[in-house]
Amino acid sequence: MGGQQRVYRQRIRSTQSLKKIFRAMELIAASRIGKARDRVAAAGPYSQAITRAISAVATHSKVEHPLTSERTDSDRIAVLVITADRGMAGAYSANVLRESERMKERLEGRGKTVVPYALGRRGVTYFKFRKRDIGGEWTGESDSPTVETAREIARELYSAFTAPAEEGGVAELRIVYTHFNSMVAQEPRVIRLLPLAVVEGVAEPGEDVEPLYEFEPGAEEVLDALLPRYIESRIHACMLQAAASELASRQRAMNTAVSNAEDIIRQYTRLANSARQAEITQEISEIVSGADALAAS
Asked: Measured between alpha carbons, how far is 263 from 266 in angstroms, rounded to an integer?
């Protein structure tokens, strides 16, 4: 019985240590989620404005730009997969990777070749374990992304999209990330970054649509200047969405882990008390038996 008590007490102490770690991680995530949500809200207007500007240039000009036209000389598609650097965030990274695998199956069914680019150690480990070639990898900033990293990724993907087909150029750029809807709802999404899909304006019957903008020095030069910033802003916005989703998932997962640890502690405490009670009962029985034996003699 004494041995059982020691086992239960040791398990209680180890579970209490884990509970402290889980609680600390929950509090850290809770303290950072507010700032992450503010950054998501702050980045939204700029991303929307530059997207509208790009659409305006493409819609109100007749320039055929490579970044707004479908490429037919390559069947390669670059996919940026945004995952977490660390675990203990529930199914956050698993959901993103599952979504990327579904998209990969669809694209390969159409005869396309998918080239993964991984942001986050979970994604890098996932692709390397499966012996897949990675076009690029970035780690260390999944829950606190910076503009510098977004700019570096944008340059890498922009170069891949504009490279000739014989040098490994890709026909499309896509991003798989987790969109932050609320603290309890985050969903993996797939967006096509390039080529741009522009919706033309529709005029009323009998109405002539006049150009709304004049471009200086020219529409093509404006596109050349705006598109790199557009790619950077969209990637940075997706990184911020993913960071907020990761922190929310980690806070929720750690809260559940703390509750489970408390349940385990209560269970082992009951078992330890039962073992102690059984040990006391056995000691009393031995004392009574010894007393009876002495009295009988």
From this structure: 5
